[in-house]
Each structure stands twice: as C-alpha cells, then as structure tokens.
Amino acid sequence: MENLSENQLFDVDLENTDDQSELTLTFQALGQLASRKIKRHRAVTVQIYLEPAHQLVHIDEIPETRPTYISEDGDLDFVLAMRQDRMQINMPYSVFPVLHYGDLVSVNVVLENETTGEVLNHQNLTLIGTKRGSLDILTNHGMEVYLKSGLPAEERFGKVGYWIDQNADNPSILNKGIELLKELVDIGSLDAAKKIHEVYSEPRYAVANNEDAEKWLDQIDNVGRAASAAAEKQEAERNQLPERITDDATLVKCEQLANKGNTVAKWLIYQYSLTQQGSAYNRTKAFAFVKEAAESGSAEAIAVLADAFARNYVFVSQEQVKDYLSILKAAAEKKAPQAEYLLFKAFYEGICLGERVPVDKKMAYYYLCSSAEGGHVDAALRLWTFFENGNEFLMEESDALKWLKAAAEQGDPAAEARLGDLYIDGRLLEKDNDKGLSYLQKAAEKQNWEAQLVLFQSYYNGRYKDILFEQNKNKAFHLLEQFASEGNAEASVRIMNDYLNGNEMMLEHREAINYLRKAVDDGFAPAMYLIADLLLDGLYLPQDLEQAKKLLKAAANAGFAEAQFALYQYYCFGYKTLKNTHINKERAYKWLLKAAKTLAAAQYEVWVLSRDRHYADLDVSGQEALDYLFRSAAKRYSPALYRVGMAFGQGDVVEKNTDRGINLIEEAAARNHPEAIFTLSEIRASGSFAGETVEQNVEQSLHLLLLSAELGFGPACQKVGELFAAGQLADESEKWVAKIIETAAAAGYAVKDGAHDEAAATKAIGKAQK
C-alpha cells in the first residue's frame, strides 16, 4: 500500500472476514483528522481498476436498486461522505468480472475536503486474485510465486512490467523482475530486452546503470538479428524442400532436414505417411514429427494435429490432452495465431479433443486477443461477436469495431456482411449506404447467406431498410436459384420451403427436391432434416423410413437441434411415420438434452418431463428444469411464455407479480397459444387473477373464448357448447357450434345439456354426435 501523505492521518485497508463472497474495504480517519471531523467535512473518492491495463472495473447489468459503489455509468467509481472516523463498504465478488488467480486490481483512494476541494490524502491498495476466486493484499512474495507459475510469455511480460513499475525504488524487486525478463529474452522476446534496457537507462528505477543500459542496447540488436537469422535459415531450407514427397530420394532429403529441426520437412513427412505410398512409414515417428512441427509454430501442423489424434495415431486420453495443450502452448509462445485460437476454444468451452478441461475464461480471452493480433481472422470476428452478444469481456466499442474491420479487410464474408449492415444502419459507424451495399455485395459473392438473403429480399420487397430498390420478384427468384446453383445450401433449403408454402417460384416438385438433394450432398444438416421429413411423409418422394432415420441421425450428429429433438421423440414414442416399439429413454434423454442447448421447444419439453413421475429418471434437478423453462420463454416460445406468466401470477417458484404474469400470458395469446387465450378469457370474465383484482372486460372475454375454441382447445370448446345450450350464444350457427362440441368430445370434454335452452342444446349435441 502506498501512502502519499507525510502525516499518518488516514488509512485504507482490506478487511479479512469470514464471508469469502465479498470484498470489504475499511477507511479510517486518524489523529488530527479525526478530531477535526466537526469542522471539516470529508469525502472519500474510490476508483477500482483492473491492472496492468488500468481499466476501471465496469458492471454490464446495473441492478434496479443501484448500490453506492456503482456509478451511474456502471463503473466501480464512487464517492462516500466520511461522517464517521471509521467506515466500511462491502462489494460482492459477483459484480467483478470473473476473478482468476493472479488478476491484479488496484484501489485508488483520495480523501478531500468537501468544502474546499483540498486533497488531504491519496492512497493506493493493490490486490491480487487468489485461487479461491477472491482478492487479497498483493505482497512481493505472492507476486513472485505467481510470476513463476507457468504463465504464457506475453502475460508474464505484462505482469512483470507492472510489478517492476510499482517497485521502481526497490532494488531487490527490480533485480528479481530483471531475472524473469531475462528468461523471456532467452526464448526470443524483443519486448523483454527493451524493458530491461529501460530499467537500466531511466533514473526513476533504483538500479539504473549506464553501463548495463549500453549492454542491453546491444542485446536488443542481438535478439532482433537472431530472429531475422532464424527466419532466413528457415526460408533457405524451405527452398531446398520438394513440394511433396514422391520417392525415396525426396523422403531421405526431408528426413535429413527434419532431423536438423526443419518444421516444413517434418510436416511433409507426416503428410506423406497419410498417403497410400507412405502407408508403411513408421506411424509413431510420423506423429512425433507433426507434433514437433506444431510445437515449432507450423500453421499447417497445428491445423491437423487434432485430426491426427482423430485418426487414432495415438489413443486420446487425459495424458494426451495435456500433451496436446502443452504443444499448443509452446506454439503460442512463438506467437502462432492458429495455436492461440485453439487454446482459446479449449479454455473457453472446457473441451479439448473431446475431453473435459478446466474452463478459464481469462486465459481464453488472452489467447483470443493474441490470436487476433497475429492476424487470425476467426479470432478477430469472434471478438466482435462477443462484443455484440453481451460484451462478456467488457471490450470498448472502438476495439470491437477494430476487430470487425480487421476481419472484413481480410475478406471474411461474415464480417463483410455485418460491417455492411452497420454502415446502412448508421449504428456505431457513420451512415453510408453505398459503402454498406458494397460490403454486402462482396459477402454475397463469397456465398455468405446473410448477404445473399439481403439481396434476395431487396428485390422481392422493393427495399432494404431505408434503401429503395426496384421491386422485381422474378429477379429475386432468379438470384435465389443462382445462389443455390453456386453451392449455397441455405438457398436450396429456402427454395424447398417456398415450394412447400405456396410455391410462389412456380417450380414442380422434382426441381425443388433436386436443389434440396444438392444441399444434402454438401452435408448441410437442415437439408438432411427436411428431406428426412419428406421421406417420412411419402408425398413428394417414395416413403423410405430407413433412409429417413439415417438422415435424421446424420443431421442430429451434425448438431442440428430440430433433428436432435426428432430423435428424442422417436426413441420415446415415435416420430411421425417412424414408429418405435421399444422405448429407449437413455437415448431419448441424450438427444433431448442436446437439443435443449438451443431449441426452445426442447427446453420446454425438459421442464414438462421434470414434472411427470414417469420420467423421474431424467437427470435434471428442479432448478435446472426451471432454468430450461425460463430459457424457452426468453426465446418467446408460447407454451413457455404461458407457464412463466402463470408462475408470476400465482407466485409459484418466483416472486408474485400479477402485472408481469398477465403481460406474459397476453404475449403467449398473441402467438396463438390456445390455452393462454382461454386463460386470458377467464381472467377478463372474472376480473381477477390468482386472487388479485385486474381489468374486467366481458366482451373481450367472449371474443377470446371463441378464438380459443376455434383453435381446438378442449375446455374452450366445452364452455362454448354449454353457453350455446344455455341460450347465451343465440346468434351463433348451430352447425359451427356442433363442430365445436365435436372437437370438445374428441378431446375428452363432454358438454352438459342441462342448460336454459334445452332444445337448442339437444339439437346441437345431436348434430355433433352424428
């Protein structure tokens, strides 16, 4: 802790409490300052930063009741009026970004006179993330242990630099920091050599020494020359290599170079071992070569290393996963962007080579940024996607746009399409329709479906957002067929869906199906699912249940949620014409839970099954089931909206909120959910909901009741029949009522005939029974 006041009048400290879920800071006025509390009003300004970036901790979602410690902008930047000698503030760790071991947080505190603005004291408290996910006072010993814990080179460099700058007047710490920097220099870090030169050359550092500064100036040149020499050597060896191994002579040549450390030669040998000609080559040796090539940073070797495991060159075990990760980390040390991106995926998703690994989102973000800096287009686009879909990593808008533009400049069609839309929207970027359309056109030429869909809809509707086009449906359909013919599988599925929903394109069924078959041949999962449905129906294609089942499984294995949900139904009780005489709950649950990751209908189904004792073996807790229900409702799935609305209205599993409950039921009703419509009818008729008085509207109630009956909801049909029998629907057609009563009977709801207008009721019921 640094105290900039000569007089020890004020103290800031971290309070050690039993509660590990909160950060507790104490502020203490001492001596003279305490005795003058009546005369001088004091205020404490606190700012909390993430280091070494020195970025204010920002809260994405500010609670409705904003705590004292969160500013209006959502930063941990606040002012406390210090009216007591000792004050305390508690901040739950949940408001911080995810804390990892070694994260650095600085607490900057200023004590000032509220009246005059005079700064009375300025202190800084530096904290470090613990292995428990909390914060503790940073000690030099703790920092030294952390820096020696096997960090990636770039992160180690950043943290060592921060430690050195925070201890510029401490020769012991500076020397330890220099030793750590020297380790980085040994693996070729030019930045580390430059930092050592800075420490020796600038007087603010206690170990400044002109002689050592001169030596490290020479060392900077040496490191730079060594990197250039290595690159030149590799290029010279590359020129000696054949394009591929074709005979014994080229094999021997590559082996000689590989044994000298040439990564390209190692890669070529591995590629040769995969061919029929090289099938007799020692598999273990080839696999060792590709691992060495990947470790050296070869992009080609890194890209296929996982595939080598998949080809069973070696059995994948937890040990092999550790080996694979260590290879990727070694390549990442050499700033190989592909390796960094693969490490990001492993640490973010918690999966590597199909095996579970610890999730570490801080490390994942570090590798993702480094990969993007190295020019990896997928990494750059992923950074933008994180910003747009919730900004999980708290990026600045300008940084996110930088990465989107970088991906677009490298010709990534998805980035071009998104950038084009931003220019047209005038959101985040200055509006420029011409530039926006230009980017969309580039993306469309590269088979990006989002951009192609924009062009199709522009001519189909005669406009795109605020840009007017010549409306020309024939041109729109011609474009759609062109996109499909050029290989865009999504365009092919769009054509088939158009045929099934009115055939506005005027195709005969064989033409539409041919487009769909092409998408299936390309392995497009939605096309597999759609053609499987056609094979089950047997209308446009001869019925083929076995082929349909194969395609459903292929689509499901490819991750298509609708196909996964169809397999759940098949293994549980059959899917369409695909009957299943033997229920297999284990397989059914497997596919249901896979589908429930994204599909609202599957999420709702998990909740439904969790309430049925016949499915008690579904391994989902009550809270997890409730989470699935709310996730389904968040996707605006009408049955889930209705159930959540009822939960709020009744105060069941959530805090009672009548208005919110009715709003959700109304939204479900607007989406044609018949039970929601019927319930809303009952609410409007009675003017009450779960014991609470709400708006009453008898006329609207009757309208909703009839609508629910027309949608075939049994209780609504039953009530309509009984109202008619009671003479309260005298204006309704007997034939229509008879149909409604028939629907009620089919659903198991008998219409009572003991009403006021017995003759009318008997007549209607008689017609329904014929």
TrEMBL record:
The lineage of its organism: Bacteria, Bacillati, Bacillota, Bacilli, Bacillales. This is TPR repeat protein. InterPro entries: Sel1-like (IPR006597), Sel1_AlgK (IPR050767), TPR-like_helical_dom_sf (IPR011990). It holds the Pfam family Sel1. It comes from the Bacteria.
